[in-house]
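During the second year of the project, the team shifted from modelling isolated chains to modelling whole assemblies. The rationale, set out in the original proposal, was that interfaces cannot be judged from single-chain predictions alone. As a representative example for this report, we include one of the complexes processed in the last quarter. Its constituent sequences, exactly as entered into the pipeline, are reproduced here:
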Amino acid sequence: MLEGLAWTLAVEVPAAGRSGWLPVLCVNLVSYPLAWAVYGLFPCDVSGAWLAVESGVVCLEAGLLSICAPWPTWRCVLYVLLANALSASLALVLYADS
Amino acid sequence: MRTLTHRWWHGVTALLVAAWLLVAPLHADLIPPGTRPIEHTLVFDASPWFQQYRIVAAPTVGFDGDVVVQPDVPFRFSSKYGTRLYAVPLDVTPPSGAWRDAREWWSMQRSADIPVAERKFVPLVSTLESVETRLRIVDISASGMQVVVVDEDSVHNGWLIASLLLVFGLGLGLLLWLWRKGRKQHA
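Output from the structure prediction step:
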């Protein structure tokens, strides 16, 4: 969890800028424990299920941002979506090889 | 000036993203799958059988790992190495020396399988830290030994659960505050 939050603080929060850093931080605070609970209940390896959960979390983050973030919401959402898509793709390749 | 500041900000952001992805791609914004080991031990209830028999837990494959079982004292076992329980009357002296050299002698003693599978790995995100399974000897006869599971105690990482709940509550509270603030500004 700390590694994920480190990523959030180092990449997503600065990327969201002055108008979006707090909403981005908040959605991550909500989504991490949720994802943790989902994996605890339904453990899975690198697979379609894992990717589905990760995608679901990103969609949840984007949805929450669109409700709570001030203007320009689209930029925050876009950053979060892109950062997550990039990191998920990389991790998928790396984990699948291991 | 404002545009310049924005460009500078985006440049710094791009550098941060690139650096982070290069240095620690596995620590990205996701919860990686995987497992971690936990300790699963067995413990026997005290029973009169211990006054008549020496109970030994020993692997059926591998070389070492035999242990004389005492009531109420936890001991490790292995499903991988096929740990089996043996009962030897107290007036019978087992062969001296290494366990592996006397395997044939032990195979002729009264014995039983461990009635529970070892839980060696749990998902990375599991709060489970350790498991202790309590066993009881029901019977020891010429045909073998009968052992049943009485209870199972699991130890969970309470700090992790508390931290997750705290982080979730904090995030949800702040999001609600932001949402209400946004509505007030629009009104």
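Residues 158-186 of chain B form the longest helix (29 residues). Chain B touches chain A through 36 residues (CB under 8 Å).
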